[in-house]
Amino acid sequence: MRLDLVPRIRRSAVLDILAPALAFVAAVMVGGVAVAALGVSPGAAFVTYFVTPLSDVWSLQEIALKAAPLALIATGLAFCYRADLWNIGAEGQFVVGGLAGGWVGVATHGSGGSVWILPAMLAAGALAGAAYALIPAVLKVRLGVSEILTSLMLVYVAQLLLDYMVRGPLRDPAGYNFPQSVGFEAAARLPYLMEGETLHAGVLIALAAVGLGTFVLARTLFGFEVRLVGASPRAARFAGFSDARLTLAVFAISGGAAGLAGIVEVAGRIGQLQPEISPGYGFTAIIVAFLGRLSPPGILVAALVIALTTIGGEGAQIDLKLPLDLTRAFQGLLLGLVLGADVFARYHVRLVPGGPVSRTAP
User: Which residue windows are transmembrane per the record (predicted)?
Assistant: First the structure.
């Protein structure tokens, strides 16, 4: 016997909504078993992970601040993945964007706080991220080099470059030899949305990016081209769309979004350049993109869910002594279950005599 996957002629809207919800419930149940095996009450863990972070103003702000860069990066990545192109190096583009924008903040330190400094930092971050993402894109278009390998390897180059810069040329001369730049002036920092709180304008930038991404993918010719190339490359070529031009465009968009997220993080939460400016946002955003089904509104929801589990995991580590790696395992499990649920939402499963699993063409 073998399993045949037959595409559904008509996809159920109810099933599309229920699939990720059921996957989340299944992930929570599996996580509860793992927590019980560690000697902790699953009920207490559920409250700590999913209820407590939603009952405190500070935690709600932290969720928004963690979700903002994830949503921004994942929205850019959705353009690549929808075109069946694989930018795995958003972490490096995030770092380069933060470094380039932060360099502007360091270079203008003591200049009197001109209003153009922050916009220049944001522009520098986005342009640097886009330029860095174009390296694997050009290598793919011109030489046929795998964009997966080159984009991933460039992550380590970016991290080493940042480390060198903050320990050398950009190090604060009055910083007691600590590897960090000078603190940014007020004109180089993102403004706070509420007095005395931690929520800053980077959240609004992320929301604007999600809205813009939704419009471009759903309402423009370029968005149609992205979807068509990803779904049927031959049909796209017959329609006159250029694979090379699209590759360069979507990599520039995804890299620009990641670079913008980098400088948003540096000019927002951190306030200076350090050897490490990312807790892995670029890699986590890949999970967010697929959890959100490569749709910007879905990505926003997925980013909030991942941010919630991250904040809850930190609380569980403190209150319940649960390892933080359990949170990462849960996030990976959630991705796997959501992708698996999508298979059942898109295909009928049939048992037929024969060998291994096969997929019947539409």
Answer: 21-51, 63-81, 93-110, 116-135, 147-166, 199-222, 243-263, 283-308
**One-letter amino acid identity for 91?**
E
Q: What is the pLDDT of residues 300-326, one digit of tens each?
A: 999 999 999 999 999 999 988 989 888
Q: What is the DSSP letter of 3?
A: E
Per the CB < 8 A criterion, the answer to whether 327 and 309 are in contact is yes
347-352 and 2-7 beta bridge pairing? antiparallel
As a residue count, the chain comes to 362
Q: Which of 24, 8, 6 is nearest to 341 (CA)?
A: 24
Distance CA 341, CA 177 (A): 52
| pLDDT, tens digit, 9 for 90 and up, residues 168-187 | 999 998 888 899 999 999 99
Cα(136)–Cα(142) distance, rounded to whole angstroms?
10
Give the model's pLDDT for residue 341: 83
6's CB contacts (< 8 A; 6+ apart) are: 347, 348, 349, 350, 360
Going 250 to 252 to 256 to 262, the CA torsion angle's sign is positive
Longest CA span, the chain = 77
Neighbours of 324 (CB within 10 A): 12
Alpha carbon of 241 to those of 81, 147, 216, 245: distances in Å? Answer: 17, 20, 17, 8
Instruction: Please count the other Cβ atoms lying within 10 Å of the Cβ belonging to residue 266.
Output: 31
Distance CA 123, CA 108 (A): 15
For the stretch 103-122, pLDDT in tens is 999 999 887 778 899 999 99
Question: Strand runs (DSSP E) across 104-238, as ranges?
Answer: none
Spatial separation of the C-alpha atoms in residues 56 and 71, rounded to whole Å: 22
List the one residue out of 355, 244, 335 whose CA is nearest residue 285. 335
